[in-house]
Structure formats: structure tokens, C-alpha cells
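User: I'm preparing a small set of examples for a lab meeting where we compare how different chains pack in three dimensions. I only have the primary sequence for this one, and I'd like the structure in C-alpha cell form so I can line it up with the others. Please keep the answer compact; I'll paste it straight into my notes.
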Amino acid sequence: MKKTIQQIIVSSLIGLAIMTACQPVAGQSAAKIQTAVITSRNAAQLAPAAQAREGSEFNEIVWAADGSALLSVSGSGAARFSAAALEKQETFSFDNPATLYAASPDGKTIVFSNDNYNAFLADIQVTENAQSIYSPTYLGNFDFSPDGKTLLSTSLDEIAVTLWDAASGAQVQTISGFETAAPVYSAKFGEDGKHILWIARGTLQLTDIATQEFSPAFSHEDFVSAAVLSKDGSLLASAAAGTVNGEFTPAIYLWDAASGELKTTLTYPEAFNAVAFSPDGSLLAASAGSTLVFWNIADGQQVVEIDSGSEDIFGLAFSPDGVSLAVSGSAGTITLWQVK
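Assistant: Understood. Below is the C-alpha cell output for the 340-residue chain.
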């Protein structure tokens, strides 16, 4: 059932003009920014190409599927930036208390709630109508599928995931079967769009959406701080501290997603906050404090580490074409890194 947003939760959803705080770094124009695909051979040549400052930490950064825009999501709003120079195109914020859970990859739909039972899918360019979703259980987190067609929600009353049709708000299916000793978990879509990645403290597991079959459990000695599935669904990367060669150390583990076999362990002196595969799966990027670290997947060798500044990095997202790496920091900054 459709209702006006004003009747449901907010009095307005405001679009703001382009802001001068979003501009190319060091005087570079968008036309001069290099467009080489980031690889293990040129990652050492990465440099900031554009930057936007929002002043508050982002929960998520998402590239539009066609690479034309970058979306940032915080607890109280969302913003859409151009991919060329991070110029802000639109900003969305709530007048009344609400929680913004996620934004779709095409930048057209947001999902939000004010009571954790009723959620609303709103077209951010046609704000007078919102598609409502009612969950009989207390909502946890939301995530859009990579193609934006399906919405995932978790429940805080039971360990289960519900899939919703993003266009109609209709419930598609519910998936359960993930087990954890403590009922604290989250779930999100794998980058391949075919799997759900469950995360509970030190345990990860994948579910094939089509068959609802579960992969082997991926177990860790310590809490998992970040995890991502490669775009082809073959590799799972997870960050957690563990014992390596007799020492307890921060590490990234590369797993065979189908068999659960541990293929490679990548160690580093500092704990990791975020991990991301390049679109072709050949490069892994990770953040540790303010440092960006890159590894070549083929041989597990570290390619380069780059100090990005004083801000801790909590978000990493490669553009669909692999030309840019979007980095979000604790001080509310988004930076596009590209090959010089």
C-alpha cells in the first residue's frame, strides 16, 4: 500500500544543489584525471583525484552500476556524487527522526524506518510516494542486491533473512538455517548477487539464494572486522586476528568460497577495518587505520601500502570499471584514488 512520505514519517526529503566542498584534489579537473584500471602493476602510483567532505562518518558507500555516480549513506541521510569529480548532485535528509538503512545501486531508491517494523522504499527523485514494507519481526539491517532488484532484511527476533522485491515491496522468500552461539549477527548480499553472506562474531557462512544451500562455516579465532565475496563468487576474504606461525596477529584470510578451504593468510601489524576486491578479482585492497594496503591475489604478495592521511578508513569500494577506488574516512571524507 502506498502512502505519502509526509503521512508516514517525514515532512520533507530535501534535494540540495551542488556544493563547492566537493572538488578535484590539488586543482585537477575531471578531464585530466587518469583512467587506467587499477592493477597490481600500477597500484603504487595511486593518488587522490577528487575529494568530498561531509563532516559525519558514512555507514556505506555504493557505486552506481554504470559507474556514473557514487552514493554515501549515513544514519540520517544520503548523498549522491558524480563519479568524475565527486560533485554533489543531491542530498537527502529527514526532518523527523528516522533511520536510513540503505540506498540502491542506481541511486533511485532509499529504504528507511522510524519504528523498526515498518520500512519504506522511496524513490528519491519522486518523493511524494513511498512503498511500505511491514515486518512482523524487529528489523535489523537492510542491503540491496548488486542489481538493485532485491532488498534483504535481517531480524533481531530470529536468525533469518527476508528477501523483498525492491520495485513492489512484496516479500519474496525467507531464508534461515544459519547458526550462531550468540544471537548477534548481520547479513548482506555477496558481490556476485547469488549468495548471502552471514556474519556472526568469528563465524562466516554463505547461502546460495537459488538453492538455499549453506557453504561450510568459515571460523576465526577472533571477531571478524570485515568480509567480502569476490564478484565471481569464488573467493571470500575475511579480516580477523588469529594465530599465524605461533603469533597472534591481525590477518586477512582468503578462502575458497565453495569448499571452505583456506588458501592464503595475509598478515599485517595493524587491525583491518575494510576489505574490497577489484572488479576482476585480481587485486585485494584493505584499510588498517589510515593506511591502504594492496595484495596481488595470484601470488598473495603485498603490492604497496599507502598512507592516506590522519583519518581512519572504514569504507572501500572499487568503481565497476576498476578505474577508481572510493575511500571513506572517520571524519566524513570521501576520496577517489586513481592511477596518476
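A couple of notes for your slides: The chain has one domain: 2-339. The CA atoms of residues 97 and 114 lie 7 Å apart.

User: Perfect, thanks.
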